[in-house]
Write a structure and sequence with these properties.
Blueprint: E1 6-10, H1 14-25, E2 29-33, H2 37-49, H3 51-57, H4 62-71, E3 73-75, E4 86-89, H5 95-105, E5 114-117, H6 124-127, E6 137-142, E7 151-155, H7 162-174, E8 178-182, H8 191-207, H9 213-224, H10 229-236, H11 238-250, H12 256-268
Parallel strand pairs: 1-2, 1-4, 2-3, 4-5, 5-6, 7-8
Antiparallel strand pairs: 6-7
Helix pairs in contact: 1-2, 3-4, 8-10, 11-12
Site (Important for catalytic activity): 141
Protein name: Putative 3-hydroxybutyryl-CoA dehydrogenase
Pathway: Lipid metabolism; butanoate metabolism
């Protein structure tokens, strides 16, 4: 089985940045692709933001984390997609963004290159036709804060080579994640199929004026002894929440469009993007702990 040692991450957003550090800490040769020098600069800032949580919350010491950060390469050349073992696509959760990146990398991919999407909503079979070697395409979906929540949902499409599916599982394990195989395509995978109705119900309660986010969270946390839905939304990040809601609106799911507008107007446009920005439904301290007063 081919060893997947070199990785190109397309997209240096919140998940792309933490994936880069996670991969580098586990011995992978990592490059982040950005469309411009400004994109690269933002990606470097995001990677740097994860220095503290990886030092404080994992088995890696400050020296190992510093070495991993230093080892990450950056490029604006999509041609690099043809020079790695696996491309890990982490662009925005929209069909338009994903279509653009696949069309850009398409001429440069080699027959043996594996391409993995981190999408949680777009089915692999919808993206596979954009690539020259469809059998080499698979989904490897991570949640946020992967150093604390190392779930890796692995899902192929009908044309995914069985060996590629196994390689994806092995790669996830090598980078410290827990492979969770999914045997049939489903938008939302396992995690978001469970999570989205949960957080949408919370948003609907809030949007209808039934209660406020902190009270809704407190209710859940007292009874269920687990993170409340609005804290979960802050971890996910408002941009991803908005993209998921817009995707569900496009599928005709009632109420999701209105919820998307609320998230855009009251949070994204106000810079309250979630834990990554230090503010979302809650304000957060430097350690990422919410102020619940």
């Amino acid at each position: 089985m081919q060893s997947l040692d070199s990785v190109l991450i397309t997209g240096g957003g919140t998940l792309g940045a933490q994936s880069a550090l996670q991969f580098a800490l586990h011995g992978k040769k990592v490059t982040i692709y950005g469309r411009s020098e400004d994109s690269i600069a933002r990606a470097k800032q995001r990677v740097e933001r994860f220095r503290t949580p990886y030092t404080q919350d994992t088995e890696f010491d400050a020296s190992a984390v510093a070495e991993a950060i230093e080892s990450i390469d950056y490029t604006t050349q999509i041609e690099r997609a043809g020079a790695v073992d696996i491309v890990f696509e982490c662009v925005a959760e929209t069909t338009e963004a994903k279509t653009a990146i696949y069309k850009a990398m398409r001429p440069h991919l080699q027959p043996e290159t594996i391409v993995a999407t981190n999408s949680s909503t777009v089915l692999p079979s919808h993206l596979a036709p954009l690539l020259p070697y469809e059998a080499q395409f698979v989904a490897i979906h991570f949640a946020n804060e992967i150093w604390k929540r190392p779930a890796a949902e692995i899902m192929g499409h009908p044309g995914t080579d069985a060996g590629v599916f196994e390689q994806a599982k092995e790669f996830a394990a090598q980078v410290g994640m827990v492979p969770l195989p999914i045997f049939k395509e489903r938008s939302g995978y396992i995690l978001n199929s469970l999570l989205i109705p949960f957080v949408e119900s919370a948003l609907e309660l809030w949007g209808a004026g039934v209660s406020d986010p902190k009270t809704i969270d407190k209710t859940w946390e007292i009874v269920m002894d687990s993170l409340g839905p609005f804290k979960v939304l802050d971890v996910i990040g408002m941009r991803t929440v908005y993209a998921v809601l817009k995707s569900r609106e496009a599928k005709g799911i009632p109420g999701t469009g209105e919820l998307a507008q609320v998230v855009m107007r009251d949070y994204i446009e106000q810079g309250r993007l979630g834990v990554e920005a230090g503010a979302g439904f809650y304000d957060y301290d430097e350690q990422g702990q919410p102020n619940v007063d």
